[in-house]
Design goal:
Length: 269
């Protein structure tokens, strides 16, 4: 990977990276297309990063579909697919962790201890390995995007981070590798997530109190058939701190369980 990157750099070509954990869907392909439009060379990394799974069962259950992933990537055209082995990424003696405070500590960070340390560490390593000058992340994982922006700024990494808008199914459900684990009934119920979030955002814009709108959203999800709601939060879009008003861009973020699958989503407010 470094040899290819060195050749591209020597030829004055820009490299864009799309970091993924495989199980690719159209959402990932939209990241690749965005990179394709802006960079001379596009690298997609496929690495199911063990250090970002706080639950070992989740890591075991994570879909591994490398052959299909490669075939899909061929349809959009990439210059390299980098799929390192875990022992190559974390060789014996590996002892460094990139840990982001602030933006990484609440929401997913609070519920999944160690998750963002794993993400921040592997993303930093992937930037080093691919030597990319631009990196593409989905807005679907909004908090992850803010964590990556923070670490790139704090560590002076020469990478421009591009957040690509969430791709949704026709009924509004955000595309995610986890959707494949929803049975037909759960898949149907899952549409309530985007509908409830959109109603909250519209309500808040129309002047409904934040706390009231959020309570209505939580109740709507449970009524629709979600088993549990981890959080419904209105936060500052960049710092992810709680907001009292909408003088700065806000973001509504939700995590909820349906059919044994945890879905997350977010929209601007
Ligand atoms: O969003 C993901 O798929 C992962 O968190 C990432 C950014 C590839 C790091 O492993």
């Amino acid at each position: 990977m470094r040899a290819a990157a060195a050749d591209w750099f020597a030829a004055g070509q820009t490299v864009g990276v799309v970091p993924t954990m495989g199980a690719l869907h159209d959402g990932h392909l939209s990241l690749v297309r965005a990179a394709r439009a802006e960079c001379d060379k596009v690298v997609v990394t496929i690495f199911v990063n063990p250090t970002q799974f706080n639950n070992p069962e989740d890591l075991l259950k994570y879909p591994r579909t490398e052959a299909t992933d490669v075939a899909l990537l061929m349809t959009v055209g990439v210059d390299a697919i980098f799929a390192p082995a875990a022992a190559e990424v974390y060789p014996t003696g590996f002892a460094t962790t990139v840990s982001v405070a602030g933006v990484a500590q609440s929401l997913e960070g609070a519920l999944r201890p160690g998750h963002f340390d794993g993400v921040a560490t592997v993303v930093t390593k992937l930037f080093g390995m691919t030597q990319a000058s631009r990196a593409y992340f989905g807005q679907k994982d909004w908090q992850q995007l803010q964590v990556v922006r923070r670490l790139v700024s704090d560590l002076n990494l020469p990478v421009t981070i591009v957040g690509v808008e969430t791709l949704r199914e026709a009924d509004g459900l955000a595309m995610s590798s986890r959707n494949a684990r929803l049975d037909p009934a759960a898949r149907k119920t899952a549409t309530a997530l985007f509908a409830a979030m959109s109603a909250v955002a519209a309500g808040i814009r129309a002047g409904v109190q934040f706390a009231d709108a959020i309570a209505v959203c939580r109740a709507a999800l449970l009524r629709a058939g979600f088993a549990e709601v981890d959080y419904v939060e209105l936060r500052d879009a960049a710092s992810l701190e709680p907001v009292q008003d909408l003088s700065r861009p806000g973001r509504l973020l939700v995590a909820a369980w349906i059919g044994g699958v945890r879905l997350i989503d977010n929209i601007p407010v």
